[in-house]
Amino acid sequence: MTRSVTATITVEGDEALLAGYRRRVNELLDADSGAPYRELHTPGRLDYRVEGEGVPYPVFVTASEDFPDLVVEVRWEHPAGAAGGSATIRGGRVVDQSSAPGPAAAGARCELRADRDGTLVLGVCCRRRGTGDWIGYAVTASQHAFFRATHEGQTDVLEASDGVEGEWAERWTVAGESVTYAELDPRQPIESRLLGELDRLANDFAAEWVWFADDAPEATAIERQRYGQYGWKVNAANVRAAKLKTALRQTETGAFEFEIPELEAAAVAALVARHWMQAARH
User: Fold this and answer.
1) Considering its fold, how many domains does the chain have in total?
2) Beta carbons of 126 and 150 less than 8 angstroms apart
3) How far apart are CA 201 and CA 204, in angstroms?
4) 46 beta partners
5) What 8-state DSSP symbol labels residue 181?
6) For the whole model, what pTM was predicted?
7) In the structure, how many helices (H) and strands (E) does the chain have?
8) Which band of pLDDT confidence, cut at 50, 70 and 90, is reported for residue 155?
9) Are residues 161 and 115 located together in one domain of the fold?
10) The domain that contains 32 carries what CATH number?
11) For residue 1, is pLDDT > 80?
12) Dist. CA 159–CA 135, nearest whole Å
């Protein structure tokens, strides 16, 4: 699953301040980032275009500490219909940050649950593909998978991949209280068009809701800092700090949750939680 982004960073202000900020940014980009960048500056305005696995926020934040009078605007997007977002940096701090799903995520429904220490219990993003046919992406703190859920009559069939490989690896057939589980051997390839839809859905969901510990350090520095400030535990997969603080409801026990209001989509998420998540724990 790719998570590359294209970021545009702009700064306007006094020419002398801009010249100093540019020198500091270029020094840091050349030394620390490793991500390719272009400079498209004009008089009175700096304009950077950066491509890589995440926005190199630490570079622009660090440089901003020495130039608190400059306001740095960041806009980023994933390629080909995925998510995008924006942020404002001032005085060495990210003072505003937001993200939004792109067109590829249209119709998607999301549900998340996290423990009181921030550990991601389960995140599910799913989209209807046809009558009784849903596809999606599921992730816990340590596991993730594509899935497909179909409903016909009184029977539900849930198929899941192993990680985000392009093959169905497991199948649950649920009829009332009867559950039949099968580990597919041989595994069944996911049709290329469907695999593309699953990959875009997962990328959109991750861009808005989840950050991964194995992403590039510059892409996770701010999230790690926030997790440290709040005393949360960093795992392989984590809910974005801003989402934990603003989008998820904190329960009486201190846990966090964000529920799907639509009944059919909620039933799909429940199916994944009841079967795939329980299997993923073992």
Assistant:
1) 2
2) no
3) 5
4) 11
5) E
6) 0.66
7) 7, 17
8) very high
9) yes
10) 3.30.70.1270
11) no
12) 9
8 Å CB contact between 7 and 55: yes
Q: How far is Cα of residue 248 from the mean position of the Cα atoms in its chain?
A: 15
Structure tokens at 129: 């593909």
Together in a domain, 194 and 270: yes
- Quote the tokens at residue 72: 């740095």
Residue 87 structural domain:
5-100
Confidence category of residue 236, pLDDT binned at 50, 70, 90: very high
Could you read off the pLDDT of 115-138 as tens digits, one per residue?
A: 999 999 999 999 999 899 999 999
Structure tokens belonging to residue 58 = 């630490």
